[in-house]
Amino acid sequence: MAALIRSVFVKNRGLWLPGLSAVRAMSSEPTPPFSTLSVSHPAIAVTHVELCRPAKRNAMNQAFWSEMVDCFSQIALDSECRVVVVSGAGKLFTAGIDLMDMAAHVLQPEGDDVARMSWNMRRIVTKYQETFSIIEKCPKPVVVAVHGACVGGGVDLITACDIRLCTQDAWFQVKEVDIGLAADVGTLQRLPKVIGSRSLVNELALTARKMYSDEAKSCGLVSRVFADKEAMMCGALELAGEIAARSPVAVQGTKINLLYSRDHSVSEGLDYMATWNMSMLQTQDLVKSAQAAMERKSPKDVPFSKL
Amino acid sequence: MAALIRSVFVKNRGLWLPGLSAVRAMSSEPTPPFSTLSVSHPAIAVTHVELCRPAKRNAMNQAFWSEMVDCFSQIALDSECRVVVVSGAGKLFTAGIDLMDMAAHVLQPEGDDVARMSWNMRRIVTKYQETFSIIEKCPKPVVVAVHGACVGGGVDLITACDIRLCTQDAWFQVKEVDIGLAADVGTLQRLPKVIGSRSLVNELALTARKMYSDEAKSCGLVSRVFADKEAMMCGALELAGEIAARSPVAVQGTKINLLYSRDHSVSEGLDYMATWNMSMLQTQDLVKSAQAAMERKSPKDVPFSKL
Amino acid sequence: MAALIRSVFVKNRGLWLPGLSAVRAMSSEPTPPFSTLSVSHPAIAVTHVELCRPAKRNAMNQAFWSEMVDCFSQIALDSECRVVVVSGAGKLFTAGIDLMDMAAHVLQPEGDDVARMSWNMRRIVTKYQETFSIIEKCPKPVVVAVHGACVGGGVDLITACDIRLCTQDAWFQVKEVDIGLAADVGTLQRLPKVIGSRSLVNELALTARKMYSDEAKSCGLVSRVFADKEAMMCGALELAGEIAARSPVAVQGTKINLLYSRDHSVSEGLDYMATWNMSMLQTQDLVKSAQAAMERKSPKDVPFSKL
Amino acid sequence: MAALIRSVFVKNRGLWLPGLSAVRAMSSEPTPPFSTLSVSHPAIAVTHVELCRPAKRNAMNQAFWSEMVDCFSQIALDSECRVVVVSGAGKLFTAGIDLMDMAAHVLQPEGDDVARMSWNMRRIVTKYQETFSIIEKCPKPVVVAVHGACVGGGVDLITACDIRLCTQDAWFQVKEVDIGLAADVGTLQRLPKVIGSRSLVNELALTARKMYSDEAKSCGLVSRVFADKEAMMCGALELAGEIAARSPVAVQGTKINLLYSRDHSVSEGLDYMATWNMSMLQTQDLVKSAQAAMERKSPKDVPFSKL
Amino acid sequence: MAALIRSVFVKNRGLWLPGLSAVRAMSSEPTPPFSTLSVSHPAIAVTHVELCRPAKRNAMNQAFWSEMVDCFSQIALDSECRVVVVSGAGKLFTAGIDLMDMAAHVLQPEGDDVARMSWNMRRIVTKYQETFSIIEKCPKPVVVAVHGACVGGGVDLITACDIRLCTQDAWFQVKEVDIGLAADVGTLQRLPKVIGSRSLVNELALTARKMYSDEAKSCGLVSRVFADKEAMMCGALELAGEIAARSPVAVQGTKINLLYSRDHSVSEGLDYMATWNMSMLQTQDLVKSAQAAMERKSPKDVPFSKL
Amino acid sequence: MAALIRSVFVKNRGLWLPGLSAVRAMSSEPTPPFSTLSVSHPAIAVTHVELCRPAKRNAMNQAFWSEMVDCFSQIALDSECRVVVVSGAGKLFTAGIDLMDMAAHVLQPEGDDVARMSWNMRRIVTKYQETFSIIEKCPKPVVVAVHGACVGGGVDLITACDIRLCTQDAWFQVKEVDIGLAADVGTLQRLPKVIGSRSLVNELALTARKMYSDEAKSCGLVSRVFADKEAMMCGALELAGEIAARSPVAVQGTKINLLYSRDHSVSEGLDYMATWNMSMLQTQDLVKSAQAAMERKSPKDVPFSKL
Fold first, then answer.
1. What are the catalytic residues of E?
2. Hey, are the CB atoms on B272 and F272 less than 8 Å from each other?
3. Secreted: present as a keyword of the record (chains A, B, C, D, E, F) (predicted)?
4. In this structure, what are the phi and psi dihedrals at residue B295, rounded to the nearest 5 degrees?
5. pLDDT by residue (tens digit) across F3-49?
6. Whole-angstrom Cα distance, residue E133 to residue F194?
7. CB–CB of B179 and C289 under 8 A?
């Protein structure tokens, strides 16, 4: 994967911020202490998080659930990072939950009676929900690039990301009813707010049928479909580059307020926005950007301070 | 209609749960005490509710409004039923409200002054709203199959269902402004949450123009369009079969939480979901389904207890 | 522009209400005291508001922000008006905010310290938000017709309208991140509730890329695309005519309840609707319309009282 | 009890509406088909519901839970009734849930696994919640008069009433933690909205300690304390008479909007109120009352139509 | 009244900010163009608004409703003003709505049918609601001082204020049910959020009984009771002086966030607060105040910039 | 302090659960790694957290804010603990924020422009808010016992606890406006939901005046006042013992649902409660408790499993 990313980066180097010179090391192996994720920095201000258990079809084992939290907590605080790309190593994005690894844990909650087992089960589910909510809480936009299968927990994951891309061969499956449960780490909450047709959401969640890339595009789950993984990664990095080139004050404020708006009325959202921008408009980025706009320069030619 | 359903069932018998043998009687005539609905059981765990006043274009008269409530209240408690299909008898789905039958009732509310007439009018409207809300409150998924016209009250009805299918010749019309009122039994509340384009919702509701099946598909009102009624009923039963074959704990929990999510923020939805699943994961269905999945068996080969 | 509108009106005169005869004067020049808007009455019960600073690409200067409030406040109270059409004069819809005119005002809020500057900045943002919220508060439906560019503040404006139309050459750009700020006068709050794909909303808002008319149609931002401006204005007036021909009690109640539904749960929306209609069903419009419907007459042949 | 009520009525007959003459029959025995409630009509427009299993300390058995729903559903539709008084027969108000009668039912929900037993348990709890919610849904104000013990389910009941009175010897106990459960039919939801001190609410609910009448008065749980039951019933009927004497349009609209306000923001409440009163102000009651006020007559001298 | 205020000011001059010298003119007559209000400036940074139609018992006529809006809109923008005191001229606070003046207006809404009359009635009610909401929208704290009667609209008014004081002879009456309507300009929405006992709120609103000052104090409607009007005005001005002496950034931010909290969950309130204070903590007032606190100086000795 | 606690424990040992024998070690010195808190276990299932910087009047320094989070996170997971008591070491409860220690941190946020400083300030405030929110998130009830002064941050802290007690000499002060800021770590959000009089809340927050124990009791801030600290600690432990003696399933479910109810409508709260109890009623605690109740035994004689 690292080679592919590098080649994309070379081909698209024109995208990157000219005013910045130091590039962080680009790792291609799982970064210690992560055993399920590989984190690299393919370009200035871009962090790439790769689901990286290809031998297990990137299935989500116990380690994965806590590593994601650690990984995105670090990213949230990394002032060098302005945008994140998430993708999967190997032949597909993810096969979802690793049933073998998780079964004992989830199927046998501790407790002396039903109430106590339920209490512990709730704690477990809440913890797993946090794994994907952490993506939303991270103020940097997250672009997710899906190739091949995206099953079960994979759909929970991508609906917590901000922009979804996929390859022509990608397919998506809300798998949970097939294994006897209602999806409980985000799909039922976020998917209906991500795509426009409730009839389709219901059909997907109630029948566990596969949805292929064409339908994913037409229903709005993904905003773009690419011919193959190389093209998609190139597109994802280009898109990430566009975002990274803009004022982080503007970009991260945009993400935070878009999420706020999703869960509030329009008038509540406007009030919050005004309270947000009363200070966020007092930024040099606005002056620099406005000046660049008047001079018809690209935002990419404007150097911004870290955030 | 009964003949058609039976032929569909015969053609598709491969769909049904092999482990179950007793099939409930299949009625094709309006079930007493219903004068406007025909209720049958075309397959194991599937209930078919047919709007059945074909001579009156399935127009909604006074009896209809209370029979729907009775019918779906029974279904909600029928542990044999796991999924419902709704369709219309005759040449079209429904012409909407039966103006002749309803006019006296609605146009002349009782009361000694405007306040008292308003009070009674509110009671009437609230009662009619309940007729379609009962579909949402029923925890079993409801698939609606529309052919020909679906007008006025018909749109209120289908937006309260979970999955919408239609034939190529189907058309939809939010008719209310044409008769001088704002739609008040569900369309204005549910349609904007069912399809993705608010511009289109507004246009439909403000102009009462007809929308045909192609646009209904592209905007997401329906998730599939079929060539004709026979194909649609076949598809509807196949879809119903897919749902009926899965764990009722998983399926009904999915419906309840999808509806909860529609009306709450993501974090509220997640909290409710975790509280829901703390007990609902303690089901034999999960064990059976997970085992079947590992053995690469279909969910249809797994027998589940009633719910 | 006036000539075009007149020609459209002449071509489509069959659309207008036959029972009404008095046509208000059709102005084509900016109505005093408006320097940025031209208000005319191209047909019975239809008000046309034209962004009218073509030499400045209809950019939004300081005068614009308060004139919009005055204009729509007048329209809200004008019982002759039943529907509004908004469009732009000249070569494009609007270039968005007039940076030159606004910069001093926004970039230099008064105040002795950061808190006081923030306080004043919040007052300014809140005032600008009101400029577009006034469109929503106006109970008459607003149809907006976009040709050419619709940039920045233009997107804020059109998302506050009820129905969006555009020409084949139209394009839309959420421009704010390019000038270093998070959009704060409505786009981030309304766009996600206007179109169905959140992935697309995020991409547009985070990258400031242009979206062309085809994509605007397929994602649901606009409900119709026309070949050119003349065709669009004809279509807009025809659509406005359809709305104007119907009961204003029904139409305005529909707008108010659709907006209420957007920001509330379905059950809250139903309760409000029942409380609304307990009096609004006590209208002669219902009797007249129902009678016309039974007689198979068009709503356009029914004269309604003013509202 | 009937004798006491009658004596109160005789002493206070000056309270009752002079314009009305027909008094409905005053029953003092449990009205068929009620085995746990006694319903009577001690004065014009006043309905008295008495918990009436004195030999069992008015404990709530299975019959009680459904009889309350039937009883208040009838009252809601009884246009003769303008206000309700609830009290308990015998030595105390109620000992709460009848553990003996309920245990089998609640402790042994049906179901093949935990999920199915939970599903059925939820159905049971929801049904019991409805027993007290029905009091809120009844638009007529409900005055509850408590003497002696009010334990467990009794607190759930009284917090759903509108006005609470008690005798000097009354005491209240949120008993549920003592029997190993969190109170689930209303106390935890309504008590914190009924009294002002959250510290006290928490203490009562977490320790199950008794609260006596003095503290109940000072914390606002009850609005008045009477020396003994006779004085209290006299006071309750006098209070009920005050309410019954006023315009039912005003009174019932007041109850509905007070409840709406409890659960909404002030601006939401104001919007609903304006929408409510746009028709409810169009009442003859307003004209009659305003005229009486100008003539310095009492509301009791004004005859109002039924509602 | 002016004489009284001046004497209070003289007696309490020690209260006022020593660093400020210019005192605005103290008017004692109704300020043009107000016919129902008298506005004066009894001390630095304090504005006194007096209901001033003593011959009519300060009853609220048509002029009053719009003058209040004008008055408080001016105050909101007056950077010299940091706190407002509201009281009534003459023998009592206010007799409430001026029935004679308002009757024609409210009892006879225009409109050709019930729907249209309702539409216009809603516009009127909404406008009157705004008269008191404007007090909440004004970011400066409003202290209201009540003597004698406070009836009907008076209760709507005072519940929209921030701090309530009264004299020993004061009494309060939610009068609306007595004139045949549900209170619709704020009492039913705000009173339950102002005092702690819902039983009492319901009793007051449903029976229109008078509440005297002792009960008003014990239930929390007022926070202090004074022997007579002179003592109360002295206390009100002292209290206003305490508020005026503190940082306007701190004080007005406190009011805004207290109101926000009233209508939101705790976690929503905390989020808003953090977003508010991210800029509001960047004030010189914090530095000045912290320094004064460390030097054990009073806030009154700290000069703050205008806001 | 440890000696006092021990003496209280000895005097009240009759309170503790007889079925349990192992008492955890009782520490009286600050537990490593806490420098500001002392954690001990004065009785079975009771954890005592003492603010312990008496030489600095228990002022809240930087260490305090993170130690509280660690401390309560541990408690939340400690299945031995069923209830928490919080108090202050030395002469008073707490002087609030340690201005000297915090000033540099808060007054000088990092960042290259106002927007970036605001961004960092928001992060700081959010972190400090979490310090007290962690008390609410802990499912075990928290009893707080206040003696002497409780100033500024102290009020934020106690409003996040479940039950408040104080000594006769206690006083409370919402100090923030005195140092130039709006209270931002909980007081403005929680205090209005803790006590019943909004007039009083506003007065306290806007003037920073002290409130003494009598008023704290009458307004409901505390539920009990004790003569001195020894009596209060005895009372606090007795109260804690009452809670610890009851089913932890019942007690912790009660806390969670009381908090849920505070921030939701009654019907939302009831729905959540039913979903909660569908599993939580399936506990042996209910059987044991019901049996004990029928046998007229105290809950304290019932041994419950850990939770």
1. 97, 153, 156, 176, 184
2. yes
3. no
4. -90, 5
5. 444 444 444 443 333 333 333 444 444 556 799 999 999 999 999 99
6. 24
7. yes
Q: Which tokens hold the place of F122? A: 């928001």
Residues of chain F with pLDDT below 50 are 1-29
Question: Residues of A with CB below 8 A from C206's CB?
Answer: 141, 162-163, 243, 246, 251, 254-255
Concatenating the DSSP letter of every residue in chain A gives: -HHHHHHHHHHTGGGS-TT--PPPP---SPPTT-SSEEEEEEETTEEEEEE--GGGTT-B-HHHHHHHHHHHHHHHH-TT--EEEEEESTTSSB--B-HHHHHHHHHS---SSHHHHHHHHHHHHHHHHHHHHHHHHSSS-EEEEE-SEEETHHHHHHHTSSEEEEETT-EEE--GGGGTS---SSHHHHHHHHSS-HHHHHHHHHH--EEEHHHHHHTTSSSEEESSHHHHHHHHHHHHHHHHTS-HHHHHHHHHHHHHHHTS-HHHHHHHHHHHHHHHTSSHHHHHHHHHHHTT--GGG------
- As a CATH number, domain D248-301 is 1.10.12.10
Segments of chain C scoring below 70 in pLDDT: 1-32
Instruction: State whether residue F51 is helix, strand or coil.
Output: strand
Quick: pLDDT tens for E81-104. Answer: 999 999 999 999 999 999 888 877
Q: Are A243 and C205 in contact (CB under 8 A)?
A: no
How many CB atoms lie under 10 A from the CB of residue D127? Answer: 14
d(CA F103, nearest CA chain D) in Å: 33
- In three-state secondary structure terms, C149 is strand
Query: pTM for the full model?
Result: 0.92
Residues of B in contact with F278 (CB under 8 A): 279
| DSSP H or E stretch at residue E227 | none
A125 to chain B, any CB pair closer than 8 A? The answer is yes
Write down the mean pLDDT value for chain D. 90
Are the C-beta atoms of F205 and F197 separated by less than 8 Å? no
Active site residue A153: yes
Residue B275, chain A, CB below 8 Å: the answer is yes
Q: Which helix (H) or strand (E) holds B178?
A: none
Amino acid at F183: A
ipTM of this model?
0.90
Tell me the shortest Cα–Cα distance from A108 to chain D, in angstroms. Answer: 13
**Residue E178 tokens, joined:** 């007595």
Closest CA to F20 of F277, F290, F289, F244: F244
Domains A2-244 and A248-301 share a fold: no
Question: DSSP secondary-structure letter at F20?
Answer: -
Give the range among A157-161, A298-302, D5-9 with minimum mean pLDDT. Answer: D5-9
Q: Is B97 a catalytic residue?
A: yes
Task: Look up residue C51 and give its DSSP letter.
Answer: E
Q: Over its length of 307 residues, how does chain E's per-residue pLDDT go in tens digits?
A: 444 444 444 444 433 333 333 334 444 445 567 999 999 999 999 999 999 999 999 999 999 999 999 999 999 999 999 999 999 999 999 999 998 888 777 777 899 999 999 999 999 999 999 999 999 999 999 999 999 999 999 999 999 999 999 999 999 999 999 999 999 999 999 999 999 899 999 999 999 999 999 999 999 999 999 999 999 999 999 999 999 999 999 999 999 999 999 999 999 999 999 999 999 999 999 999 988 888 888 888 899 999 9
Surface-to-core class of residue B211, CB atoms within 10 Å of its CB (0-12 exposed, 13-18 middle, 19+ buried) = buried
Q: Is the CATH number of domain A2-244 3.90.226.10?
A: yes
Q: Tally C-beta pairs within 8 A across D and E.
A: 178
Tokens of E247: 């940082």
What is the nearest CA distance from F80 to chain A, expressed in angstroms? 14
Distance from C-alpha of F307 to C-alpha of F304, rounded to nearest angstrom: 9
- Residue pair E47/E85 in contact by the 8 Å Cβ criterion: yes
Q: CA-CA distance, A175 to F128, in Å (whole number)? A: 40
